UniProtKB/TrEMBL annotation:
InterPro entries according to UniProt: 6-PGluconate_DH-like_C_sf, 6DGDH_YqeC, 6PGD_dom2, 6PGDH_C, 6PGDH_NADP-bd, 6PGdom_BS, NAD(P)-bd_dom_sf, Pgluconate_DH
One Pfam family from the record: 6PGD
GO biological process terms, semicolon-separated: D-gluconate metabolic process; pentose-phosphate shunt
GO molecular function: NADP binding; phosphogluconate dehydrogenase (decarboxylating) activity
Protein name per the record: 6-phosphogluconate dehydrogenase
Stated family: Belongs to the 6-phosphogluconate dehydrogenase family.
Domain of life: Bacteria
Keywords: Gluconate utilization, Oxidoreductase
SMART domains: 6PGD
Amino acid sequence: MQVGLVGLGKMGFNMRARLRDAGHEVIGFDPRPEVSDVASLEDLAKALSSPRVVWVMVPSGTVTDQTIVSLAGILGPGDLVIDGGNSRYTEDQPHAKLLGDNGIAFVDAGVSGGVWGLTEGYGLMVGGADEDVARAMPIFDALRPPGPVEDGFVHVGPVGAGHFAKMVHNGVEYALMTAYAEGYEMLAAEDLVRDPQAVYQAWSNGTVVRSWLQQLLAKALREDPDLAQISGYTEDSGEGRWTVEEAIRLRVPVPSIAAALFARFLSRQEDSPTMKAVAALRNQFGGHAVKRVSESG
């Protein structure tokens, strides 16, 4: 099958390779000429045979919006656009309408797998009309992990459902990573434990907490036992925030996901204003000692 791929970053570059390895013809476009197969979106559209399928794999937000607008003017009736980026699900219906007004179909695809997707395959959560998803199944089959289709691919529902599922997936990921990290800190704090990495390595088989994330932490600790080369500063992609916001809208309690999100915010503070205020209050009402910031230098 022939497919155009817009965006050849860490994910898109590997996706192009995996699709080509599966026998598909992939024509990629990226602003960086050293990785791009064509010079422009217009050239990409000309290089594809109608009806065309174009997979968009660019950063969410403004870049995705601009790309969808451009494709709406370049592609034509019968073509299909798949947004595989981390777009917020509420953006999918407007994108579908914009393209639909020009006779272009739209599918949203939540993609998980990161840099390991090239060899392991990508978990796919897809939203769209049945006929549009069926049309793109050869692409999805090439990208997903080997094995039963339901173990790595799901047609979640109509447009927007795929990105909603990916948003929740990332919220769960936040909570899992934080739980594994807290467990590591406890192991490292106890003198009885000789090797925290060995514990995480042992958990990789036969335990109820084994998972790919847990195995990746064991790998990270093997490469850097004290994590001395890594700062605790942790960004968030936005999807954890969206998950908490949607949980509020749906009145669904998600305390673990919310706590994991706020832990990331805390990681970016060199000196927490909250904890400084707590220390000041303890000093005011109880006369408890406080650590003063040195005025020297």
